[in-house]
Write a structure and sequence with these properties.
Shape: elongated
Protein name: ATP synthase gamma chain
Pfam family, one: ATP-synt
Number of strands: 5
Largest sheet: 5 strands, mixed
InterPro entries: ATP_synth_F1_ATPase_gsu, ATP_synth_F1_gsu
Keywords: ATP synthesis, Cell membrane, CF(1), Coiled coil, Hydrogen ion transport, Ion transport, Membrane, Transport
Number of helices: 6
Number of domains: 1
Subcellular location: Cell membrane; Membrane
CATH topology: Pyruvate Kinase, Chain: A, domain 1
C-alpha cells in the first residue's frame, strides 16, 4: 500500500511540474499575440494601398503584362505552405499541411503539376519524412517574421513565374496559410497570388467603383514592373504575419487545454491517493483490533 501512495505522489508532482511549464508557455504566447496582431494592423494599410494601386493600373491600362496575363495552358503551379518552426500549437500545422496537400491533389486532377515552396520547420520536416520534393525552403523566421524573409520568398516566386512552366518555372502561384480570425479560431486560407486578375476579382469588387483615373509616366508597363514586386512582397509578408499571429493563438489555446488537463490529473490522482491512504489506515486499524482481540482471547 505504501508503494502505491508513493506512485500517486510522484504522478501528482509530475502533473504539477507540467502545469507550471504549460501555464508559463500560455502566458508567453498571450503576450506574443498582442505584438503579432499589432504588426498585422501596422502592415495592413500599406498592403491595401499597394493592392488598390496595382488593381487600378491593371484595370485602367490596356497592356498585356506577363504578371497579369492568364496563361493559355497552366502546366506547373507553385504552392507556398506557411507552417511554423515550433510545435505545441494543437492542429495549427497539421491543418495547414492538410490544406496544402488537398490543393495539390486538386491541381493534379486539373492536369497541373504542383511545385512546393515551404516556410517553417514543420512543413520541411513533413516533406522530408515522406520524401517529397520541394523547390525552396525557409526556416527560422516564423515566430516574428521579418520583411527580409518576405523579400526572399517573393524574389524566388517571381523568378519562377517569369521562367514559366515550360522552363522549370511556374504558371501560377498559390499561398496556403492560417489566417488569424480570433483567439479561438485560426482559419486555413488559399489565395491565388498570380496571375493578378484572379485575386483582384475576388477581393476588390466592392471597391472597384472608387478607382481614380490614372495618367502613367513614362508608361503603364514600367509602372507595373515597379509595383508588382512590391505587391507580391506585401502579400507574402501579410501571409507571414497572419500565420505568426495564428500560431501564437493556437499555442495559447493548446497550452491552456494542457493546463486544464493537468489540473484534472492532479484532482484525480489526489482522490486516488486519499483513497489509498484511507484504505491503508483502515487496514492498520483492523490489524490492531485483530491483534487486541487475539491477546484478549488468549488470556
Amino acid at each position: 500500500m505504501g508503494a502505491q501512495l508513493r506512485v500517486y505522489k510522484q504522478k501528482i508532482s509530475s502533473a504539477q511540474t507540467t502545469k507550471k511549464i504549460t501555464k508559463a508557455m500560455e502566458l508567453i504566447a498571450a503576450s506574443r499575440i498582442q505584438k503579432a496582431m499589432a504588426r498585422v494592423r501596422a502592415a495592413g494599410p500599406f498592403a491595401r494601398a499597394v493592392t488598390r494601386a496595382v488593381a487600378a493600373v491593371a484595370t485602367h491600362s490596356d497592356i498585356d503584362h506577363p504578371l497579369t496575363q492568364e496563361p493559355e495552358t497552366i502546366r506547373r503551379s507553385a504552392v507556398v505552405i506557411f507552417s511554423s518552426d515550433r510545435g505545441l500549437a494543437g492542429a495549427f500545422n497539421s491543418q495547414i499541411l492538410r490544406e496544402g496537400m488537398e490543393l495539390a491533389q486538386l491541381l493534379r486532377e486539373q492536369g497541373r503539376e504542383p511545385v512546393f515552396y515551404l516556410v517553417g520547420r514543420k512543413a520541411v520536416g513533413y516533406f522530408q519524412f515522406r520524401r517529397l520534393d520541394s523547390a525552396a525552403e525557409w526556416i527560422g523566421d516564423t515566430d516574428a517574421p521579418s520583411f527580409h524573409t518576405a523579400e526572399q520568398i517573393a524574389a524566388e516566386l517571381l523568378d519562377a513565374f517569369a521562367r514559366g512552366g515550360e522552363s522549370d518555372g511556374v504558371d501560377e502561384i498559390h499561398l496556403v496559410y492560417n489566417r488569424f480570425v480570433s483567439m479561438m479560431v485560426q482559419s486555413p486560407e488559399r489565395v491565388r497570388l498570380l496571375p493578378l486578375e484572379v485575386v483582384e476579382a475576388e477581393e476588390n469588387t466592392a471597391d472597384s467603383h472608387v478607382y481614380p483615373l490614372y495618367d502613367f509616366e513614362p508608361d503603364s508597363s514600367e509602372v507595373l514592373d515597379a509595383l508588382l514586386p512590391v505587391y507580391v512582397q506585401s502579400r507574402v509578408f501579410n501571409a507571414l504575419l497572419q500565420s505568426s499571429a495564428a500560431k501564437h493563438a493556437a499555442t495559447q489555446k493548446a497550452m491552456k487545454s494542457a493546463s486544464d488537463n493537468a489540473d484534472k490529473l492532479i484532482t484525480d490522482y489526489t482522490r486516488l491517493r486519499n483513497n489509498a491512504r484511507q484504505a491503508e489506515i483502515t487496514q492498520q486499524i483492523a490489524e490492531i483490533v485483530g491483534g487486541a482481540d487475539a491477546l484478549a482471547s488468549g488470556k
